[in-house]
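Saturday, quiet lab. Running sequence design on the structure tokens for the scaffold JK sent over.
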């Protein structure tokens, strides 16, 4: 009895092997069926043998590849340099008068404002001197006023021929001497006031105050180091580039820098100085730029890598770098036209991570083979791989 087999629910190759086993292994067949059985076995073997070759031929009909579209984008022509971050303003706070430090009015490492009081010194002796000079000024003013009256009276008598020239000159000399004395005392008072003001040491600009080197009660001389003050909201970067870029670097250009502490963070700045002199020892060109540091992630003294943007190329055709195929004379790419691979020689320009500029050979919108071209030949039929 012959069984009904549903070949739609059995894999084709397994079905052939099953049929081959059933037919060729049927030992109950009569002699008159031997020719038919043998023919069926040979046919099944031919089908099984042909299947892999047919599959391979089918695969060769279409080479699997990955495509990309040529796109346009702005490209930056950059020059790499290395440099050091510096503070735009950094000073060491020092006293301008000798004396005993009375008080410290800040916390180390904190931000301070311009004219904020940082240190105060003992000023009692200076105040005593000021009071003494102010009293001397009042006395000198009184003497000057009296001398002025005497001089005016003797001058009037002299003009009326009632006084002598000698008495007039004597009164005038005394008046002028007292006038000079008043001016001198006034100048001394102004000097004492300045000295008194110098006992109150204030911040010359906004910034961060560093470690203090003295304590209240210590005697300090003029020039003693008290504490550093640095402005960090904006820094400057001083870096060098090869001398061949002398004609390309100029003030106003943009820079982009990275610091070791933040390798994935880019900071931007603007060039404000390009040295007109080449360093003879390194044959390099010094460039300076301002860098905004409002988030205070950068610090003076740090090392940085700098990219100087010397030019921007507008809307240039670019392709993935892996799409390039090296040749004996340069590079080529495969363009896909009507599902066929067509090789084209190309001229390349700027390279950036993962992409390359194409100056000649393809245009924006063209479809090219990005990967899989190692198996492609001119004119091959290609298809997008899954």
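Result came back. Writing it out in full:
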């Amino acid at each position: 009895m012959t069984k009904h087999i549903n070949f739609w629910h059995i894999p084709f190759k397994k079905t052939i092997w099953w049929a081959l086993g059933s037919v060729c292994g049927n030992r109950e067949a009569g002699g008159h069926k031997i020719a038919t059985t043998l023919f069926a076995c040979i046919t099944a073997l031919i089908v099984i043998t042909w299947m892999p070759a047919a599959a391979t031929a089918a695969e060769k009909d279409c080479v699997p590849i990955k495509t990309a579209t040529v796109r346009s984008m702005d490209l930056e022509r950059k020059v790499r340099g290395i440099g050091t971050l510096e503070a735009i303003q950094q000073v060491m706070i020092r006293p301008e008068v000798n004396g005993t430090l009375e008080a410290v009015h800040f916390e180390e490492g904190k931000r301070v404002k311009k004219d904020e009081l940082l240190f105060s010194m003992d000023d009692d002796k200076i105040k005593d001197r000021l009071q003494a000079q102010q009293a001397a000024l009042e006395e000198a003013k009184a003497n000057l006023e009296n001398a002025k009256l005497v001089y005016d009276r003797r001058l009037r008598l002299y003009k009326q021929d009632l006084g002598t020239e000698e008495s007039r000159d004597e009164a005038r000399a005394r008046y002028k001497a007292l006038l000079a004395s008043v001016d001198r005392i006034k100048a001394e008072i102004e000097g004492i006031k300045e000295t008194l003001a110098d006992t109150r040491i204030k911040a010359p600009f906004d910034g961060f105050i560093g470690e203090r080197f003295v304590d209240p009660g210590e005697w300090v001389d003029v020039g003693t180091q008290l504490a550093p003050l640095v402005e960090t909201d904006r820094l400057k970067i001083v870096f060098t580039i090869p001398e061949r870029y002398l004609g390309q670097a100029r003030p106003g250009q943009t820079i982009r820098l990275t610091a070791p502490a933040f390798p994935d963070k880019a900071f931007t700045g603007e060039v404000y100085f390009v040295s007109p002199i080449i360093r003879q020892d390194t044959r390099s060109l010094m460039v300076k730029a301002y860098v905004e540091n409002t988030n205070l992630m950068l610090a003076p003294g740090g090392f940085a890598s700098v990219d100087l943007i010397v030019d921007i190329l507008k809307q240039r055709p670019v392709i993935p770098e892996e799409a390039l195929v090296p040749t004996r004379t340069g590079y080529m790419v495969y363009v896909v036209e009507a599902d066929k691979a067509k090789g084209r020689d190309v001229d390349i320009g700027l390279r950036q991570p993962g992409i390359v500029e194409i100056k000649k050979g393809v245009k924006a919108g063209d479809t090219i083979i990005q990967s899989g071209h190692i198996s492609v030949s001119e004119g091959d039929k290609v298809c997008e791989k899954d």
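Notes for JK: The chain is about 30% helix and 40% strand. The chain has four domains: 7-60, 64-76+314-384, 80-88+229-313, 93-220. Ask whether to fix the surface positions before the next round.
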